[in-house]
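Table S5 (text form). Sequence records supplied for joint modeling of the two-component complex.
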Amino acid sequence: MCGLAPSRVLGSLDYGAGGWEHASVRMLATGKVEVLTGASAHGQGHETAFSQIVADRLGVPFEDVEVLHGDTQIAHKGLDTYGSRSLVVGGEALVRAADKVIEKAKPIAAHLLEANVDDVEFSAGTFSVRGTDQGKSIQDIALATFAAHNYPEGIEPNIDAESTYDPINFSFPHGTHLCAMEVDTETGRSTMRKYVCVDDVGNIINPLIVSGQVHGGLVQGIAQALWEEAVYDDSGTLVSGSFVDYLLPTSADTISFDIDHTTSPSTTNSLGTKGVGEAGTIASTPAVVNAIVDAVRDRGVNDIQMPCTPERVWRAINTSSPKGGATEAAAMPHFDESEAGQSSTEGAGA
Amino acid sequence: MIPAKFDYLAPTSVEDALSALSQHGDDAKIMAGGQSLLPVLRMRLNAPEVVIDLGRIDSLRGIREDGDALVIGALTTHSEVVTNDLVRRHALLLSAAAAEVADNQIRHRGTIGGACAHADPAGDMGSAALAMDAEFVIAGPGGTRSVPASEFFVDLFETAIGEDEILTELRVPKKTGWGAHYEKFVRVAHQWPIVAVAATVKGSGGSIDEARVALTNMGSTPLRAAATEAALSGASATEDGVRAAADRAADGTNPPSDLNGDGDYRKHLATVLTRRAVLKAASA
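The corresponding structure-token record, covering 634 residues in total, follows.
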């Protein structure tokens, strides 16, 4: 479940904030479009994906759209980026703000085209009079509105718009991840042999960014399973306090992933998108640990505490009884309801 | 982080370096490739008043033959040791170990002399030099002297180099035709070895005539696995033939316990890695 919403449900759950997101679309006299979003990016590529959405909706060139964020003096309102919500909630807010721009521009376009508003339609960036070849681009309307020399009585010369979008529901991305691990039973070292995943994140706005999100998420989740650990000594001092001891993988430590998608558009937003940010992190960690446990199950191992360091795996193998004594139920992986609420039960061998 | 302020000297001869060292004594640190010293300075684990950079002393670089020995200048980079034909022919183990040092950038900066003089027990080159019976040539105010590897590594980060001396070269007895392998056990590629084993083997007809085996990070210095070496003499170069000898690799060691493994796990690793290293060396 991604894009926590609606806000009144979150309130009923004592969640600390609402679930809406805010967006503004400013039509500059130059024909450029400034987009303000409260879903502030830190490297995920919102600038690109959000520009695609607005360019597509308004029918303007991609390079004419600029996304602004990250400073409350510029984008004053928003709930930010987390929980795989930016595109699902923030993207939809953009769509709605852009649609409002089109609605506000329409009477001005009709006025300039000397036509009835009901006879004006908008397509591919152009307002045109139905049944004629007369038309004006939305960028022309932006300039005419800024000049304000000729616009209808009774409205403001302004086609900028904003939207605060509160979703009707979560979105529901889903996927399946398969991982093959090889365990060196003499040293306990685990090596990844193959990783295949298929995620359904709904309609994809930008395939390269989605792949990047999945790859990054996979490595983060795999690192949690194999390497990363904040270790404290008995007096509470962090002893894994530098990257010499806190192990972050590099490309030398990972393999090429096989990633793919099915596409079932979400019905909770007009873009049909679902969240992707957490697809890799959520699935990869248990996939890796389960694969390691599965590899040494015949040695009587039923669980290994994360991260699965070589020493932990080796000790699990060497202090467990080979399968036969254990019941089949006890040997099955890995997620037992009765353990779900408990933290860190010791590995079978620890 | 930014290091504490220090003065920087860059002598162009060993004589000038020695005189700078005698002038500044305890306040000075010698820099070779800087791959260990600079992180130490940046983390402010040490704050020498003077850094004496040997990088402009060309006579400390290069690899040449001298009779039955290979002479490797202290400032020769790991990457030169990896690729040099003389090393590959006469001291394959040094090439194999140098290939496993850190990453490519570090191998192009770091030096064999700097790594040995730094004497980190987790450093890769110390055990390789020890297994090769290298002699360390050290220059001081009274001339040069030569120290065998078995006496060079004294303790954690401590060598036989005196405070007024500089390591100038390694003299390595040729082991032409010996197979070699450096088996390094890490969790991620850029990590210091949890344990590593340097092995070089002279074999004939599927059996091992002679072997030299040394261990990395199994104590405060690189260690020779003497019992293993003795037991390997005449062993067949097979899993079963090598196993009993390798099982003695950790005899008498007292390895550290840390986040990557307790001492008893390291002892176990040493036996497994020794078996693998010897078998790969025998087929190299």
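Note: Chain B touches chain A through 17 residues (CB under 8 Å).
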